[in-house]
């Protein structure tokens, strides 16, 4: 019986060693698999980053090209812009327009001063309550007249300057 027990013991030990080795190799293979998966994911991330960099760079290049095209278009449109008449006619028109602007400015100041003096006079004369109410109505009326007169002056000046520009 002693030799049978020894043989069974030896067999049990061999089986247990085989089981332990197979189990450890199974654990080792899953660990190797997870490590390789991690490395694959890192490689994929690097590839994605490189692709996004190239996309960004190509986008920047496209933006730069469009900016250059816009600048060229602006330069070309400035070159083609009509209305720049060279010579004596142009300088005469400019002088006439400058004189017209000065005239309009002086008229505008004159009108404003005239209405300002009238409004201040009404404000000063309104000491009692009845005069104050009637004067406030007159002041409102004067302000609206001032606006209307300035608007007509502006339209007249614009019309005259357009006539000067369009005359050949």
Give a structural overview.
By secondary structure, this protein is mainly alpha-helical. It is built from three helices and no strands. Helix 2 runs antiparallel to helix 3. The longest helix is centred in the N-terminal third of the chain and has 79 residues. The radius of gyration is 48 Å and the shape is elongated. The termini are far apart.
Count of DSSP-assigned helices: 3
Seen as an oligomer or otherwise, the chain set is single chain
Structural class: mainly alpha
The termini sit apart by 136 Å
SSE inventory with pairings:
Layout: H1 2-80, H2 88-125, H3 129-166
Helix pairs in contact: 2-3
Short description:
This protein is mainly alpha-helical and 168 residues long. It has helices spanning 2-80, 88-125, 129-166. The chain is 92% helix and 0% strand.
């Amino acid at each position: 019986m002693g030799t049978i027990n020894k043989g069974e013991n030896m067999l049990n030990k061999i089986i247990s060693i085989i089981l332990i080795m197979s189990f450890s190799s199974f654990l080792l293979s899953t660990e190797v698999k997870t490590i390789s998966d991690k490395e694959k994911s890192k490689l994929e991330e690097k590839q994605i980053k490189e692709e996004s960099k190239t996309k960004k760079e190509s986008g920047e290049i496209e933006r730069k090209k469009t900016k250059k095209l816009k600048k060229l278009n602006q330069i070309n449109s400035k070159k083609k812009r009509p209305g720049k008449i060279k010579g004596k006619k142009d300088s005469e028109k400019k002088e006439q327009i400058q004189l017209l602007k000065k005239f309009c400015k002086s008229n505008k100041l004159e009108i404003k001063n005239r209405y300002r003096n009238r409004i201040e006079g009404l404000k000063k004369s309104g000491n009692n309550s009845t005069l104050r109410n009637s004067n406030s109505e007159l002041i409102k009326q004067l302000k609206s007249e001032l606006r209307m007169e300035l608007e007509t002056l502006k339209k007249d000046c614009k019309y005259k300057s357009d006539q000067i520009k369009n005359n050949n």
